[in-house]
Design a protein that fits this description.
heterodimer; A: 313 residues; MetI-like fold; two-stranded antiparallel ribbon; flat; B: 294 residues; mainly alpha; 2 domains; 11 helices; Phosphate transport system permease protein (chain A)
Chain lengths: 313, 294
Amino acid sequence: MRTNNEPVHVQELISKKKQSKNLFLKFEKAIPIILFLIASVSVFTTIGIIYTLFSETIEFFKQVSVVEFFTGTVLKPLSQDPKFGVLPLIMGTLTSTVIAMLVAAPIGLMTAIYLSEFASERIRKTFKPLLEILAGIPTIVYGFFAFTFVTPLLKHVIPGLETTNILSPGIVMGIMIIPMIASLSEDAMSSVPNAMREGALALGATKLEVATRVVIPAAFSGIVASFVLAISRAIGETMIVTIASGSSKNFTFDLTQSMQTMTAYIVEVTGGDAPAGSTIYYSLYAVAMTLFVFTLLMNLFARYVARKFKEEY
Amino acid sequence: MKYVDAVQVQKRMNFRLIVNTIAKIIFFLSTVFGLVVLGILIYRVFSDGIGWINMDFLTGKLSTDPEKAGILGAILGTLWLMVVVAPVTMFFGVGTAIYLELYAKKGKLRSFIQTNIANLAGVPSIVYGILGMTVFVRALDMGNIVLAGGLTMSLLILPITIVASQEAIRAVPNHLGEASYGLGATKWQTIKNIILPAALPGILTGAILSLSRAIGETAPLVVIGIPALLIPFPGSIFDKFTVLPMQIYYWTLDSSLVEEYAYLASATIIILLLVLLLLNTTAIIIRNKFQKRY
């Protein structure tokens, strides 16, 4: 109800309406731009990672030669005559990864086969969430488990085992990535069409034969991708090896000894409050760069395998 | 003349069936293996730690004396960390998902951003720690405060949040949006009033799951440099802090010096696992209760 008797101009009302509509349209047009800026945060994260790692790594290579870094088998950052060879760290990383995969690949794959080919619907529905719990446990808890349970247990079997060694964290890391391999491989196997299974069963194949000769070949790319992703995860894993594998920069094949991985070295150096600008400080970035490149290549390879060799049905 | 030796076939068939049964048992055992380890792990942690959990432990300050040590500081630190991580990841995660699913045209730019997110998801958490240490702690000179740790963690879980939100948005059927357009609503009105509410349960589930990842993550915070020293309780996002996993880390490392620290670590693990269990149960309840099927 209008109480005042001022005349109302229709023109004015129309232009007011237009104005507010224009504002609204402007807002509507601004939305995609705002959202694009939000979405570009993820791109800037990548640029940030690559830029920080790259620029500081270049600083490092001004002080230590590339050849020494990649071929040196001695890493003694704190000694009077510091040596910066990355090979002991790569050795430690690869050793723990190989141990982890020796545990996780067969067990994870067999779990996937069981869940996808043998288990009834009810069993699958109970086991899958339980495996997800295993995958959801923080890595620090696995580290604690490796250090306070698995290592003492292994000492009974291998008397010469050191308190910090590469074997125990390797095994525990394997247990940690079982669910990852199992779940990704199971996904790949489940997407093999039933008609193929039924065809083989009708020809008189047993379930095992169906699994090994029909399903696994058909799901092969997915299975390989799951392995590669698991390897990448193991290479980047930090807390388990930091706690249970110690900080000796040994270049050895002896699994009972302490070996340091790339990730554990990064933790050690940052924990030691290395002064910014020192060679040790820059070595952190060179190691991180190596780690980043390793895992990135693995991930790209996994996606390439999954896409390139995917069988379409 | 017989072409098929029935006896031979029977023998061969029996053998194949036996192999099949043996394989089935082995496969079953390897499935159970993971769960047995899970059982041992949880049993160990509970039997060691449960006796140490009491009110003093939950509300006490950190102390070098294991009898007096409490984890209230770490609990508060974890909560303050979430105060930063939850809004930041939700904002950027959902925003990016809306852009990719509803605005970006199919083409090079979209697939570039998408590939980039997939690659970020595979970057080891410790590398995010280095990014956080270099950018937030040193370059922006924040120091190792809650804000720096929170932003680092947000970047770490951003890819998972984006992917989960994308899936939730994609699961909203097209006809809902089209009905809204048909009534004359604009794109943003449709997104705000129709698509986001319908996708909200899925988005929340994904967000809670990625938050629980951030709560359990240790490596980036170790790199940022969370002190093991006794610090006052954090009271804002600009204070120094510690979190539950860091407490577990330091107590585990020192357990070779003081035996009781291993029990304190176990007790802290129980609390951490309970927090994660609570979060995950909430996520599952939200998913089951509010997820409509169209």
